[in-house]
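User: Working on a comparison across species. This one is NtaA/DmoA family FMN-dependent monooxygenase from Amycolatopsis mongoliensis. Can you predict its structure so I can line it up against the others?
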Amino acid sequence: MTKQIKLAAHFPGVNNTTVWSDPASGSQIDFASFEHFARTAERGKFDFLFLAEGLRLREHAGKILDSDVVGRPNTTTVLAALAGVTTHLGLAGTLSSTFNEPYEVARQVASIDHLSGGRAAWNVVTSPDAWTGQNFRRGGFLKREDRYARAEEFLATVRELWDSWQPGTLVGDKENGVFARDPGKFVHSGPQFDIHGEFTLPRTPQGQPIVIQAGDSDEGREFAAKAADVIFSRHGTLEDGQTFFHDVKRRLATYGREHGELLIMPAATFVLGDTDAEAEEHAREIRLQQVRPATAIQFLEQVWSRDLSGYDVDGPLPEVDPDPDAEPLTWGRVRHEKDQLALARKWRALAEEKKLSIRELVIEVTARQQFVGSPATVAETIDEHVRSDAADGFVLVPHLTPTGLDEFVEKVVPHLQERGVFRTGYAGPTLREQLFRVR
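Assistant: Here's the predicted structure for NtaA/DmoA family FMN-dependent monooxygenase from Amycolatopsis mongoliensis:
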């Protein structure tokens, strides 16, 4: 059978992907934006909508980044509201295992699953810094190994809570109208959590909501192979995607899981045009809008840990090396490459080879338009990635809110459907059926 493509839509939120200057750019916090985005994704028969979590606004050099000042609404509140204006679309939200508790997350996600008729998903993440922790009573910082130890037990505890209500008969005085299913008690005692009591909700329509994991480290990959239904990765190119795909899938057997029990869905952006050449030109214009001069300098300062504001963004990279011993200038953004000196050498070589200025280099190394071309070209490329086992599907991140997904749904989805690799209707009422039921 032809391998079917999974598609999700990431509401862009606050980040340097969104083009704020475009007249079509709308609100990041008005419910109308979330509703438009969700309705578009459902019209396109997408598997789920995906929201990030922002527990603190990003800062740079002691000031709030201007791309973050629009605010970050609470994820579960938005998803609960979207449950009322959609009927099939999955509703996925990021909730940190570092600064939440298992009981509250289990209750929040189970509530959304009940409200939506079985369409909830939880993206399990760890929060890496004390800077975010300052917003919480406990504050503090957990080392990487401690974060994943907490996350693993956190997820296991949440699953115990979801499973604590077993199918059973009604108890109580049914004749007089006083009855309820027998709630299950839970007891969990472990290194991270020691809790007991009764969970407030019966089993959800899905049995258990879908679990997504977004870690890229070795610990994150192992965690996903052991416990996740979907892994959200950053490996969007064909070669990198295949390497990541095969590395994660090979780990499944260790936990008694089959190849198809974990779906790999990298983040991906797209730019469309009537022709491939028109799309390429449009993509260049978008990158210039995304990487403004101030943005380019700020990005470089993340790696250099130095004030580089005196450098010409259209000039060469600084001759001075990064300061690996200095405090980071940017808080709230994950830097995946930890060796600053090695990264600076790599970028200098690239800039020299291609004759790139600071701004041009930043555009080069942060290129996000994985799929650029006519609708037919983009559909073919996505299909190629999935057929070649570089991914099971993609989480699309448009550069405009909330209308950025419209063009993809109107122009690319029909091509995928004509190729027989994407659904024309939903498989069933729950997200689990959409993702794992063969149609």
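For your comparison, note: The mean pLDDT is 88.

User: Helpful, thanks.
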